[in-house]
Amino acid sequence: MDTSPFELTSQQKALLQTLSQETGEEIPVLIHRALSRLQEETSSGGMGETDYLLSSSKNADRLLEAVQGIQKGEYESHELVDD
Predict the structure, then answer these.
(1) Separation CA 66–CA 41 (nearest Å)
(2) Which residue has the higher pLDDT, 37 or 83?
(3) Which of 16, 25, 58, 76 is a good FRET partner for 5, with 20 to 30 A between their CA atoms?
(4) Residue 15: which domain range?
(5) In this model, does residue 2 exceed pLDDT 70?
(6) Residue 24 lies in a domain
(7) Rounded to an integer, what distance in angstroms lies between the CA atom of residue 3 and that of residue 25?
(8) How far apart are CA 7 and CA 12, in angstroms?
(9) What is the pTM of this model?
(10) In-domain check, residue 21
(11) How far apart are CA 4 and CA 8, in angstroms?
């Protein structure tokens, strides 16, 4: 069931479904959080980076593939390096 009042791409819908399953949160809650975060980024000037990363369908596809890989346990952990 599509509970979003927005028109979403298939990649966006799949990402929301994945995030909902992983977090146990309903899709409207996730959308509200995302919109709140975008509002914060817009007011702090960080929107340029977000716009750039989400500017193409190829990037959206890569993000979805990365999320699906994480779900399957296909990722590497690395220690943070202190300078």
Answers:
(1) 23
(2) 37
(3) 58
(4) 9-43
(5) no
(6) yes
(7) 13
(8) 10
(9) 0.40
(10) yes
(11) 8
Q: Which residue has the higher pLDDT, 55 or 21?
A: 21
Please report the sign of the dihedral spanned by the C-alpha atoms of residue 10, residue 14, residue 47, residue 30: positive
Residues 66, 61: Cα–Cα separation, whole Å: 9
Contacts of 76 by beta carbon, 8 Å cutoff, 6+ apart = none
- The amino acid at residue 59 is N
Bigger pLDDT: 22 vs 39:
22
Contact between 63 and 12 under an 8 Å Cβ cutoff? The reply is no
Instruction: State both tokens at 19.
Output: 């995030």
Answer whether residue 35 is part of any domain. yes
| pLDDT tens string 31-68 | 888 777 777 766 666 556 666 776 777 887 787 788 78
DSSP 55: S
Report the distance separating Cα 51 and Cα 18, nearest Å: 22
Copy the structure tokens of residue 7: 């028109």
